[in-house]
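Limitations

Structures in this collection are predictions, not experimental determinations, and the ligand pose is part of the prediction. Treat each record accordingly. The example that follows, with adenosine monophosphate as the small molecule, is included so readers can see exactly what is and is not provided: the inputs are given verbatim, and the output is the predicted complex.
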Amino acid sequence: MTDEKKVMFHEMELDDRILKAISQLGWPEPTLIQETAIPLLLEGKDVLMRARTGSGKTAAFAVPVIQKILNLKNTSKHQSIRALILSPSKELCGQITSVIGDLTIKCAREVRCIDISANGDTQTQKAILSDKPDIVVATPSRALVHLKANNMRLKEDLSMLVVDEADLIFSFGYEDEIKELLSHLPKIYQAVLASATLSDDVLSLKKIVLRNPVTLKLEEPELAPSSQLQHYHLFAEEDDKAAILYALLKLNLVRGKSIIFVRTVDRCYKLKLYLEQFKIGSCVLNSELPAAVRCLSVDQFNRGRYQIIVASDEKALEKPDGGILPIEERTKKKKQSSKRKKDKESGVSRGIDFQHVSNVINFDFPLDVNSYVHRAGRTARGNNQGSVLSFVSIREKPLMDAVEQHLSNGFKGQKVLQKYEFALEEVEGFRYRSRDAWRAVTRIAVREARLKEIKQELLNCKKLQGYFEENPSDLAALRRDKALHTVKVQQHLAHVPEYLLPAALRNEDIVEDQETVTEKPQVKKRKQNANFGSAKRHKYQARQNDPLKSFDVKKKKQTAGET
Ligand code: AMP
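Predicted complex:
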């Protein structure tokens, strides 16, 4: 589409209050999906949209929903729930509600939106629903709870249904709920399905939800172009992965906020406790955490309280075996894993809007191409720069080859995953420290870290307050029951002495305390190395925007010798 033909927001016949909100958000023009979908939805068409996360798809359906409600308010004073937006997880529901909040900032009194995805508090939600908010955002199961209890009625007045992340709706097992839910809707309403993939499941949902829909399969690349998003890989085995990560972070070669993906929930804690020993703070995100804690983690990360979030691979939640096992075995495994009370309404690597992520680090390589794409999609959002750095062990090499092949298809056969130069032997001191720190995080320490979180949750749980009042000894025991195998933060490990630095980086600024960014990091200026400084600056100027600086110590030494 050429620039002359681009339809701008103000050309879409949108209400002034929406246009003002969009301008307040600082969105200069619609994204491709918005430019295409908004006019179609305003015309009243049903739409099936395939759009990658980060494409702006939330506003693509939210803007027409709000416009339609404002139109209805001009003709009818009758208050009712006009739009139902379904999404598979509480985090995604929260995010959609927040986007709607931003878009209705200038018409908040006219268009009210509530999110009823949280479990529990059904009575409060019932009271809010009795006021008939204009837009209800929910997971399918929560919507059904309230429909069955007659806390909300949609049969007469609903005019729009949106199903977001439709492919996940199926993998999260909401199929039956969706079907039952449809029986509570009126005969005629406008519907939108948004999905990252157009799987068979989505196409079958399309048949039951949409009428004569327009299907938008926009020719958008699944990931940002290479000028914006760089992919690197680095071969490393288990012990070395930890040492390299420590060195990268301490040498300040990773700039900005990072999401570090690991394979399992235990490894989330292992890595967090490992980094903690060097006073590198991080928060943890995985599906076993209660929703409130997960939302808090994402929020703290977005607000800059933490620079690093360690996330377990949620692909394993969708397909516990990574798609290798036959279906029957998969179901068996799924049942087993559900014993661990994973929350099916959580999806870390899909859809959640982690803001301003500069780096995605695959500490463990993703189990398949899709998972790589979803993880990589967490960075380089909008027009921002981003990088993906994957640590690859020998066992993970075939997975990387598959990703390389897939990505290079999209880039006309060009090699996409570049080698990240890192001379581990130059940072032997880091390796030495790292080995001890990694071993200090025993399985018992990991288990206790997880238990600590559960205990905290029990102590905070409102529902248990009554029980604790009647059984104060249990409360006291829970409070007393301290973890025995905590991993101590060793102050001296937080500091990187000059002799540990590779020669090439001795004139770099080293961040000594990365615990938070709200507390101003103490940056210690190292001595300038006049010989090397200019060559290095020159090298970095070429990649000024790349949040991941390369660390090619050997090459730098050569260059230094030449200057
Ligand atoms: P989504 O794909 O809906 O999750 O949106 C991804 C990100 O893009 C969000 O952080 C939005 O705030 C942002 N965004 C949405 N529409 C636009 C736009 N027209 N211009 C710039 N940023 C946008």
